[in-house]
């Protein structure tokens, strides 16, 4: 170990586990790529105001969890705690919404940073794959995103996840509900901080995990009873489309989520094998966000799925991904001359598109064969002085154990043929 360690709340992805992370990112993004979502990448940091305005001044993310910094030039920046505000900012900046085709459908993958209390499944640096569909109000779009996330999790072999669904209403009906809820909450026996929250974001109080708070919330007014007709109809349509797709979900009227920008459809994916950090992904509609960050009216919907927690969910379910070996051929030279010759063969194989690796460092046959085994290679190529004198290399099929001498000049072509 060096003098240094990964900072608190972070961890390194190293082989072989890192391969699972790559596969998870790939599996989550595949259904998006097949459904008209284009790839977007934005900076790891943004003007701090973007998140303050976008995510919400009163949210935990903004008040407690943001990594902020002042540059030497005096700019106030924050490491991105989430993806939606940045993606919308970038789409507006590039005028993607003016190019004609709405919705603008985008997907992304990257690192996010929140100064949280670290625990299993909760880190200060984590990884998400996300999707945003910008500029269109259409229940089919909300349904599409939920269906695609379900498809992604299923393609990975996950089964013990549940989809929680709710509607948060819109700018017509939510304020009415908010007031009713505030009136109810003000009469409860709550601590100072929670009392402050009642005034700033009362819906968040519903999300309080403490049993003594939950007990008092039993008779709280229900958002469902306050939804306007348009919101009700919209939500019913989303539910009908998901149901028609055969995707199971649970109505969860307590689902409010920790970001201020959500309107109407909100959803969360939870996994039952993860303990307290059970949310593997979440999202919803954010019809007002564009205006909140100075853009035009652009009703939008999106989600972000956590890669770290998805990997933990796979481990909790005991799902082993079928990750093909990365190396097909492993070359083991015995002696200086063989090293030069086989290194040439390896280069030739790589150029022909065959994944090949080489026993570096002039190790003996036994150690090198161990490495060949560990690499998962289907074939090994072994050559010593006597083989070279005869103009051949020994080609060993690692599955059958069968070994044949192949003319050196034909080795690469023979392997390319066998490997198809
Ligand atoms: P959120 O933006 O909070 O809804 O997060 C979306 C998803 O990102 C969550 O469901 C988690 O899977 C993941 N996530 C959020 N925060 C963390 C964290 N601190 N550590 C690991 N994963 C996280």
From TrEMBL:
Q: Which residues form the Aminoacyl-transfer RNA synthetases class-II family profile domain?
A: 1-324
User: What UniProt keywords are attached to this protein's entry?
Assistant: Aminoacyl-tRNA synthetase, ATP-binding, Cytoplasm, Ligase, Nucleotide-binding, Protein biosynthesis
Reactions catalysed, as given in the entry = tRNA(His) + L-histidine + ATP = L-histidyl-tRNA(His) + AMP + diphosphate + H(+)
| Record-linked CDD domains | HisRS-like_core, HisRS_anticodon
Indicate whether Cytoplasm appears among the record's keywords. yes
What is its quaternary makeup?
A: Homodimer.
Name of the molecule in the record = Histidine--tRNA ligase
